[in-house]
Amino acid sequence: MIPTLDAASDVEAAIRSTPSEAEVVVVDGGSSDRTAAIARSAGARVLRCLPGRARQLNAGAREAGGDALLFLHADCRLPPDAAEQVAGALARPEVVGGWFPQRVDSASRLLRAGARGANLRARLLRLPYGDQAIFCRRSAFDAVAGFPEEPIMEDAGFARRLRAFGRLRPATSPVTTGDEHWRRLGGALTAALDYATLLAWLAGIPPRRIAPAYDRLRRKR
């Protein structure tokens, strides 16, 4: 599943990175560019729904076939052995899902350090984010009712649901993500904002209250 919104510059590379045998479902939230057309030409099935990443991912999962689901951001690219990584993790009956470690496509040491921090957070807390390509069994997705349809932290919320249902196991090969998330505020401020958001969420502040503050701070520059 790939949720998109004006992702024409990224979506083809994301689709091309998926295993050849995978069913690729792109769920577009109303792009004004050529995202949907590019996705179709790259071989994906394209669905449309109202914008909202959690809503889009849930819609795609409902329409997809298969016993395993993988959720990929449009600016991310899977490693060549992604299928083997997922199959290996889910071969253990106690494992209900997992994620890929993250590698940022950037020469910046700060951003590479940020990716290492994200990987440490995912391992310690078992709370991967969406740009770490979360995957799970379909039965687990159905059992936990999918992603919480919140305006922010829907990925960590989904991971927490899965974690309560069974074990999460990380892959070993990294998913590669672009550096767009970091550009506006820079590496240090982006990391500070991301961790402050995580702490607020862990403290029990509702995502609907966190999201407006997060968006305001992201628009400061």
Q: Gist?
A:
The protein has helices at residues 11-16, 35-41, 53-63, 82-90, 109-125, 138-143, 154-165, 180-183, 187-202, 207-218; strands spanning 2-4, 25-28, 45-48, 68-70, 76-77, 95-99, 102-104, 135-137, 167-170, 175-177.
Structural class, by secondary structure, is alpha/beta
Number of helices: 10
Remind me, CATH topology?
Answer: Spore Coat Polysaccharide Biosynthesis Protein SpsA, Chain A
Total domains: 1
The CATH class name reads Alpha Beta
**N-to-C terminal Cα separation, in Å?**
31 Å
Q: How would you describe the oligomerization state of the chains in this entry?
A: single chain
- Share of residues in strands: 15-25%
Q: In total, how many beta strands? A: 10
Which regions contain 5 or more consecutive residues with pLDDT less than 50? none
- Biggest sheet character: 4 strands, mixed
Rg calc: 16 Å
CATH architecture: Alpha-Beta Complex
Tell me roughly what share of residues is in helical segments. 40-55%
Mean pLDDT over all positions: 95
What does this structure look like?
This protein is α/β, with parallel strands linked by helices and 221 residues long. The protein has a single domain, classed as Spore Coat Polysaccharide Biosynthesis Protein SpsA, Chain A, CATH 3.90.550.10. It has helices spanning 11-16, 35-41, 53-63, 82-90, 109-125, 138-143, 154-165, 180-183, 187-202, 207-218, and strands at residues 2-4, 25-28, 45-48, 68-70, 76-77, 95-99, 102-104, 135-137, 167-170, 175-177.
